[in-house]
């Protein structure tokens, strides 16, 4: 509960004598972190500020306030002026008692409110001045994020539906037929014996195969030489001699290739119609497009 507000000239005097509290970031056992960033609670706990009986604690926000509400034990004198809020406990309360403080901001940005705890302590341990910073977000930015989240959710729902449908299909050639991945022409295969390796490739090509049903599948066996850094394909591109690019649907390279090891890397395209002019160049790259592996003269059945 609160008593009538102090005159503003009292606040001005208190601000002159108040010294900022600026401790170093603390651990979860000591959540008193100064300055405080609202909305970034440590260890799933609200920010805590120590207050003491008849000691003025001045909170300096980076955004003007319109309201400050106290809930819990004890009585406080309260002065609010723009970005400043002064609190003075003026009734005895048990040491360690918690009072909830909820402040409302005046600019209309999100979050519109912030909540923290006032912890009753001895006057010697009470904090005189604390700065609080709020990561404000406009309604437009939240709406953009919401639209992006909804779009991602729709894509995930579609992928989930596809996976559920795939679970109801049989495995092997029967599954390929039922899913439409294979039509009356079946699956054709071609061994590629003349693949050209780029001079700067960090991996060694062991073999190459291509398959064609409705889509194209490229299977390359790669070996990592001794002393090389681990490598794992995260992206791929298949480009023809005229610059036309086949759309890659998925890549299979489940584990990083370690020095001295070899593994198959599988690249599948979306369904392809009609004849394809080759040869094609396959480019595989690791995370962030780094350490590309370039393989040329790839032919399809």
Structural summary, described in words:
The N and C termini lie far apart (82 Å). It contains 3 helices and 19 strands. By secondary structure, the protein is of the alpha+beta class. The chain has helices at residues 8-17, 139-167, 172-179, and strands at residues 36-38, 48-52, 57-61, 65-71, 76-81, 84-89, 98-105, 113-121, 129-134, 188-191, 196-197, 204-212, 216-223, 235-239, 245-246, 248-252, 262-269, 280-285, 293-298. The longest helix is centred in the middle third of the chain and has 29 residues, at 139-167. The strands form 4 sheets. It has a 5-stranded mixed β-sheet with strand order 1-9-3-6-5, covered by helices on one side. A 5-stranded antiparallel β-sheet has the order 10-12-13-17-16, with no helix packed on it.
Summarize the structure.
By secondary structure, the protein is an alpha+beta fold. It has helices at 8-17, 139-167, 172-179; strands spanning 36-38, 48-52, 57-61, 65-71, 76-81, 84-89, 98-105, 113-121, 129-134, 188-191, 196-197, 204-212, 216-223, 235-239, 245-246, 248-252, 262-269, 280-285, 293-298.
Strand content: 35-45%
Q: Which regions contain 5 or more consecutive residues with pLDDT less than 50?
A: 8-33
Q: Considering DSSP H and I runs of 4 or more, what fraction of the residues is helical?
A: 10-25%
Major sheet strand order? 1-9-3-6-5
N-C termini distance: 82 Å
Characterize the largest beta sheet: strand count, sense, and whether it forms a barrel: 5 strands, mixed
**What is the ordering of alpha helices and beta strands?**
HEEEEEEEEEHHEEEEEEEEEE
Radius of gyration: 33 Å
Number of continuous helical runs: 3
Gross morphology is elongated
Total number of β-strand segments?
19
Structural class by helix and strand composition: alpha+beta
**Average pLDDT metric:** 83
């Amino acid at each position: 509960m609160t008593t009538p507000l102090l005159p503003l000239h009292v606040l001005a005097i208190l601000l002159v004598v108040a010294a900022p509290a600026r401790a170093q970031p603390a651990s979860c056992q000591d959540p008193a972190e100064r300055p405080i960033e609202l909305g970034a609670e440590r260890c799933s706990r609200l920010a805590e500020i120590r207050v003491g009986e008849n000691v003025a604690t001045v909170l300096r926000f980076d955004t003007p306030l319109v309201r400050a509400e106290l809930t819990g034990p004890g009585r406080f004198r309260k002065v609010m002026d723009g970005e400043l809020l002064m609190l003075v406990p003026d009734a005895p309360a048990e040491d360690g008692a918690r009072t909830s403080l909820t402040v409302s901001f005046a600019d209309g940005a999100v979050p519109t409110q912030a909540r923290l705890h006032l912890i009753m302590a001895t006057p010697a341990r009470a904090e005189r001045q604390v700065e609080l910073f709020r990561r404000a977000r406009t309604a437009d930015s939240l709406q953009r994020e919401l639209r992006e989240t909804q779009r991602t959710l729709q894509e995930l729902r579609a992928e989930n539906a596809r996976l559920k449908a795939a679970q109801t299909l049989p495995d092997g050639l029967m599954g390929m037929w039922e899913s439409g991945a294979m039509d009356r022409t079946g699956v054709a295969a071609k061994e590629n014996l003349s693949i050209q390796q780029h001079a700067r490739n960090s991996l060694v090509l062991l073999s190459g195969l291509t398959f064609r049903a409705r889509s194209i599948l490229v299977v390359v066996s790669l070996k990592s030489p001794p002393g090389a850094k681990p490598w794992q394909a995260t992206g791929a591109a298949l480009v023809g001699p005229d610059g036309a690019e086949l759309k890659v649907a998925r890549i299979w390279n489940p584990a990083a290739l370690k020095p001295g090891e070899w593994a198959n890397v599988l690249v599948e395209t979306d369904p392809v119609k009609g004849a394809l002019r080759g040869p094609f160049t396959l480019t595989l790259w690791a995370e962030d497009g780094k350490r590309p592996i370039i393989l040329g003269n790839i032919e399809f059945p």
